[in-house]
Amino acid sequence: MVHHGTVDTVEWLTPTLVRIVLIGPGLSGLRAPEHTDAYVNVAIPPAGAPYAGVFVPAEVRERHDERHWPARRRYSVRDWDGTRLTLDVVVHGDAGVGGPWAASAARGDVLVLEGPGGGYRPDPAADWHLLVGDESALPAIAASLEAVPADSRAVVRLVCDGPDHEVALTCPGELDLTWLHRGGTPEDVELLPHAVEALVFPEGRVQAFVHGEADEIRAIRRHLLTERGLARSDMSCSPYWRRTMTDEAWRRVKRDFVARMDADVESGAA
Ligand SMILES: Cc1cc2nc3c(=O)[nH]c(=O)nc-3n(C[C@H](O)[C@H](O)[C@H](O)COP(=O)(O)OP(=O)(O)OC[C@H]3O[C@@H](n4cnc5c(N)ncnc54)[C@H](O)[C@@H]3O)c2cc1C
Prior knowledge:
CATH topology of the largest domain: Rossmann fold
Shape: globular
Number of helices: 6
Order of helices and strands: EEEHEEEHEEHEEHEHEH
Number of domains: 2
Bound molecules: flavin-adenine dinucleotide
CATH architecture of the largest domain: 3-Layer(aba) Sandwich
Helix content: 10-25%
């Protein structure tokens, strides 16, 4: 179902993460997501598009030349209280469509979106929770932490550009949180995988949520399945984006990449 929201507030949470709050009657049909990693697909028209404001993406694709089709980008629902929809968007330099849109968003702008979808929620029956990711996964991880039961423990490893890129997180359960800081070197891609490999796992059944950059997610997933013996059913792993690829390019090869991720562990413990 197609919805639309009007930008109410724009707030920079960190130098590269901007919080957009959308409001308005165009959101009234938006379902309350049951998943804490719920996401919406937003549709952003290219500059010079012969339509504006509220539109139906499928109709635009039928009626207009491909160069005018809106770009689709996926963003997590940080919060939806039935009136206000909160999205936290990474602004990674000047590149892309979604980042620049968010960086220049202003009160009154309209954003067309579809959804929500999703698939993960902390399982109250798990003994502890492992959540790993980068800034793109931070909204889903922040929302998920708020749903971790008070008698449970969450182990969280997040990567960002430095101390001023960290955001406060709350969790009713016990929170073991470490932020890893990139150094601007090729080794940055190993920060999250190494941090997970170095963990001393608490006793009991873990449920894992590992989302973010494709190569990092692949390495962590392989480790969790083959060396830690996690069951696939206890893991939510999603390569949200891929270095050097636009979302369009990534979506074209993502299915093959995910198949290769599965092949990594075909003969493993999982
Ligand atoms: C289910 C799901 C939920 C997501 N939730 C969020 C969310 O809540 N917030 C969020 O910001 N992103 C989220 N993402 C990731 C987001 O959809 C992608 O990062 C998307 O590529 C951003 O689009 P863009 O137009 O800004 O950049 P693109 O045009 O897609 O890419 C341009 C360049 O920027 C690089 N790039 C893309 N994303 C990043 C990044 N995060 N950091 C550094 N470089 C990047 C690309 O590799 C490419 O080189 C989610 C993705 C999925 C699948």
